[in-house]
Amino acid sequence: MDYIYIVHCFVIFLPITFTVLLQHLTTSESPLTFLQPIRHEARFNYFNLTVNKMYGHSIANEIVEYSSTQYLNFHYILKKKAIVDHVIFEAIECKEYYIDCVNVRTFELTNMCNNMKTLTMFVKFRYQKQEAKCPLEGEYVYINTSLDFGKIAPIFVSSINNLWERTLKMSAHLYDPNNELILGCTLHNYFLSFRNKKRIGNKNINYKLN
User: Fold this and answer.
1) Residue 106 backbone zone (phi > 0: left; psi -120 to 50: alpha; other: beta)
2) CATH for 37-198?
């Protein structure tokens, strides 16, 4: 009797279950829509900005964090006019903990005084006391500054595969027409990789892959 009851339930509920599943698959964009693309986030653990004493001095530079989001704050003064002639960018890629490092990118941008916006194409400013225009002079304050990783990765990273296994040292140095350093900035960062997984009610929950 029990066996007949189980078979009866199975016969009744199997078509219902199959119909619901089929409806879900045909109305979804893909059977794997719940599996979202991997999102990468750069995290800083070293930031330093130096100014050539001939031009001015650095007052403060720091890494701050609000609601699990990191920002850069920096403040410097240039006492004399500085004409930015060229900028040298360098990216050094390492294994975890900044060991076994190798230079993956070094390039120079010239005629910078007419292309100052190029310097800020990788940066998002929440607050800036003075916009960087050539020639540089005066007091510069930047608060809650972040980097646009979407623009940085194709240029400074050799590959976005397995980013969490690597760390990166980046630097930018600004020079005047006499090849004298105006100021330089160095950043060390590692990467976190997440996948957003959809839950009931379209609530997104982040899962760290590493």
Assistant:
1) beta
2) 2.70.220
